[in-house]
């Protein structure tokens, strides 16, 4: 292998389009740090696709007017290492060769090495890599101040140094395998002073295109020189690379194949040689091409006049090479034409028969498939105008057809990939048929000559073709068909997007693409032939690794396990060879320093200079087995985390610890220095801090590497450590296996590892005192952490003092009953609960900890305690056992000792043999949000690299705690863990007990309207004084009432009634002022609690808010105590709708006198109130009606009502009289915080009528009170009349009109056909003068209809003055003035008549509406 600088994609990313990529080697042109080289190499790798029109060519077959010239691309594959042994594949596989070498370095003209030695580096590159065609050096001038130095190297922008003398460039010998040709190149100096690197990108874009153009020109010249020379099928002699065991197995298989008549390693019989020239085989298969080319240049042998069509001198092989050149040059049209010229039916039949050019024909099929895919990727005119897009070999099925006749049919774009798949399948069939048996591969190279009619497929070519075909199918399958995503996957390689998919997803991908998983797996497994074992170990590992990756992507686990076992065997063989070679090496035992340097091959200088021979004499050297050190390096290469040590207190002198530090310094030191700087303190302290970081160990790591290979490697290292009796190493590798691969270990393996550690750890402690295991349990042991809220009677709330002390009502209105205003006092129920509970100093609280054990064995935790920050706490530890494959939740207790903030960050977990380690809850990923895909590849994709990069970036940002190494865990936890919720801890608070001793455990049973008083006992159970006590009262009727008010679809009167119910008739009321309550320590008091029974009320509650805040505190921290009061309200007496009837004054006063038990009562204008009272209970109840019939007349009525019966009671009452201003007053709002806007707008007249109705109803309800009582008991209550709303017509009956009209006859007797005088007395009860006009309307008796009665009376009653109307004088009638109007009538017939008087108010303007007032009818009987 060529010793070149390591990189994360050293051999380049494997892809389907590898035959179309020019391989260019990147090497450091001078001693550079790894990070510095990677920095400049990353800029170069960005230009892996160059536009065809940007690549300058001396001669090109693509015309500028062609669409391909505008759309085409030239692809480059940059590598940093290669295998020179693959040179034997030339020229069959030109893309396998390194065609260009590019040296990268920095430039400083002030340094003698730059000015004197750099111009000669290109010559050294030619000597080191003679098979490449172009060798150049790109130097980046990073010093912007040295203009003279930059000018001496060239011009200021792109300095090109003079090329080396011709004597420095000696051509390599002609027998050197691989490509060689014209030596051009030199030193190119780039200015690289811009921070955004725009200058570097600009010059690289130009120079790389020129570099590739020069390379292609030389390759074109070389391929043209191959005309007329024999092109042999490449083949490598593999005798030296095969172990004796494999060789014996192959001999045995060969004996079975060829029979006993031949020796095992003899080749099959060859045809006779016809020419003398072929009697002497060429020195090597790869050198045939170049040997013939050099002879062509030096000798004058004439070219044959006519070349054969097949064979080494045939035109088919040369056409295939020219097609490969066109494919590398980006001339896809030319490549398709050249390949298509070879894809004939006759050539196919010859290849399937194993004749000459079979391998070349199969390779042409590969080239056609790649060119066909690239043309499809370009699309547009480059695709529509491209020639030879159809695969013609599958059309000629009829033997009668001409086999060389081409049949062209239209291609469906979505199914174009099937032509490529068929071409590749045919190529694999030919490769497999021509694959030589193992004994032929082991035979000397003389078995293949120019006259051999059979071409044998090189095993590496066959394996590469199988993998390329599998990658092609995988790209189509994972992308869901023939689309742009599939094109990018085939071109750039890597892992497809559908890396992890379920069975349903696999089925969906297969349905969309037409490719099935078994096809991909079958193509990959085709590479596993017996001939694969004849390849070198590196090629075997590369092939097996690629097959394993493909099988893992498609989910074939059993095949994957088989391939991984083969891979493990290959790696184990290499390790065994190294162990045997180390044991068989004679001589004096080397020192520890020599062991480290020879085993690790590290370039960093050691800092462990304090070791001497004394350690070796003390037995230290006995356990310093270099195989363990090599195994440690293999662990890091395979992706096992060595950055964090699995053990604590390992002696720094131990060989394994020193090797681990050396490996970590080599692998991660340059990365760390590139981020924080080589002189930063973090560059020296961050790596040791990571070794002891618990968070770095438990950080969720994506899968990296082959798990089964890693597990087997660690198991082998444990066995090796046991063989050398190194107990510290045994504990190291066993803990590493237990820590990082617990998910793949079985229960028996877990038990065996734990038992072994229990035996090994005490023995290891003898040589390493204080040795302890790091936490080896599940990484995500802690699933959830929740601070349980305090019990209800111990919780705290924060309230403002203003919410408990509302402002006094306006205009001296009385306060609500018991100071319990629900609009002020119940605001706490709508408060949003806090996210984290508030704790109290000195009082314990519980934290619910959820643990998950994914292992197959029980997890015994020796000590589990909470880890808190903030105030001082007391956290007692507990022991627990988590069953296998289970989730367990257990409570842990924490007691804060002082006020402040408390954050419960996680749990401290102690397992057997481990030190305590803090676990935190991982941050949850949002649903539907995928984790960000890492763009890193190779060893850079290791999880430890990402973790170290995050910490280094934090250190570079100036976080001193990180670079000092003291807070690496906090830096990682901040990125992976959510910030723990901080709980407020308040000072110690008192504790109150509240009881209702008379309530008991049953519901409070009351009749509707009954009021009961319960004693509420408050007891201070603490040693602190309770200076603040308030009550919040609630019931199940308040919420519907508030909702109805907030709805806004109510009239103002309805809103007032609901507010009145809440404020003045609540279900609960406290009988004292809570502001005067204060409880001394251990003291008690009793507070009366009034309970009013309301219908449909099922419960009520009393919430006591108490505490001991300071007088100046505006925000109070209080505790609350809730006392529920279940209620059972039975029905009592209910009032049916009220009735109102007009009655004359005399009858009303007579009835009132009887009810008042007096001789005479003066009521004035009156009405009769009808009360229908129904006893809805099961008891005999007495109903009492108290009415204020007039200001000085009080009436009382009492009746007994049987159960479920109704009694009707009539109460005579004086009509309600209110001033006009009182009637028009707006309806008040009882709550200053309640604003209600009705959704139904009312006109002014309707609003005035509603206001008058409201005030008259209030006056009526204030005059009447209905109560009930149970005989012989003390139970009594009120019957609510608040639900009664008289109609507008009812209001006119029981209220005094604004203009009162009284009618009476001047003489007591009325006779027929005699004149009678009617006197109408009008009284103005308004506050404004009125112009009135009286109308007198007679009607007949009630037996006639109203219209007929009025018409009949109009004919039987005559007015003396001839008019029914008369003006009222004085006019206008002053307020409170009285006027009389006299009218003379004559009744023409006898009967019963009624006289109706109406007073019309004459408006001031003609357009104003008229107002009419109606009197009570005056009955007149005419005999």
Automatic annotation (TrEMBL):
Q: What is its main location?
A: Golgi
Domain Trs120/TRAPPC9 N-terminal positions: 14-378
Which Gene Ontology molecular function entries are recorded, alphabetically?
protein-glutamine gamma-glutamyltransferase activity
Key word ATP-binding present in the record?
A: no
Q: Keywords in UniProt for this one?
A: Golgi apparatus
- Name the record gives this protein: Uncharacterized protein
High-level lineage: Eukaryota, Fungi, Dikarya, Basidiomycota, Ustilaginomycotina
Q: Which GO terms describe its cellular component?
A: trans-Golgi network
The protein's superkingdom reads Eukaryota
| Residues of the Trs120/TRAPPC9 first Ig-like domain | 784-941
Is Ligase tagged as a keyword? Answer: no
Chain residue ranges for the region called Disordered: 147-182, 257-288
All copies of domain Trs120/TRAPPC9 TPR region, residue ranges: 450-764
Task: Report domain Trs120/TRAPPC9 third Ig-like positions.
Answer: 1136-1283
Which compartments does it reside in?
Answer: Golgi apparatus
Q: Name one Pfam family in it.
A: TRAPPC9-Trs120
Q: Which organism is it from?
A: Malassezia brasiliensis
